[in-house]
């Protein structure tokens, strides 16, 4: 009887001790879990990306930590995107300030010259002076208007407001619209335009915006080709892409600058005084990219440039 009672007492003591130990281990696990969670949350609040676990743990903390790491990576990517957007906005504001500063200063200067009594007194009956000032002011206003119009196009393209609508159109119609728009500038400089394209060639593309892209490249070619030069436009259907090539006999682009010409507001240093704001090629590339195509440039200094537009068949 006494032995049985002792055994029961020992069993009860063992169960109690096991229960107390289990309770102690549970409290320790909860404390460790809370401590690890607190440290990870502190790292997140300090914008630190959580490192991946050294080994996968199939417990509660392992599952929670994996989700915290995913949140951390997502938060880091979002922070990087916000930073890049801010930098792009700063760059855009800086570019706009630079681009508008010169025409606004010129307008202000011409207006001051018009308002000066001495300038008018020296030519009391000479209307040509007044007409010249007004012509220059009008030119600067048109430059500002073109800049703002280009900025609106660029903003609409970058924000996805413009929706590309691809349909099967004869590519000759698209080329004709772009050539017609550039023809006055080409004729003024006596630049010959040569076109080689099959009239029956159909291409699935957005006629309006593809025409805008081609016009921008043609406009660039006319600006930087000397009077009496030539521009060659050819269309070739390849296996996957249809290639539209625009070659000019202009000054050419050095190899080290060929990647930069598609940058927003980029202009070649040698022609910085020429008309233009350096946004045409940027818009051209964006338009073609939105149609799953791309633009490639080949050029040699003194021997002209060739811009190849590739659009998927």
What's the gist of this structure?
The chain has 7 helices and 7 strands, in the order ααααβαββαββαββ. It is α+β, with helices and mostly antiparallel strands and 313 residues long. It starts with a helix and ends with a strand.
Produce the secondary structure layout.
Elements (H helix, E strand, L loop, with lengths): L1 H44 L14 H56 L1 H6 L4 H32 L8 E4 H18 L3 E5 L5 E4 L1 H17 L6 E8 L3 E8 L31 H10 L4 E6 L5 E8 L1
Parallel strand pairs: 2-4
Antiparallel strand pairs: 1-3, 4-5, 5-7, 6-7
Helix pairs in contact: 1-2, 2-4, 4-7, 5-6, 6-7
What would you note in describing this structure?
- There is one protein chain.
- Helices cover 58% and strands 14% of the residues.
- The strands form two sheets. It has a five-stranded mixed β-sheet, with helices on one face.
- The chain has 313 residues and is of the alpha+beta class.
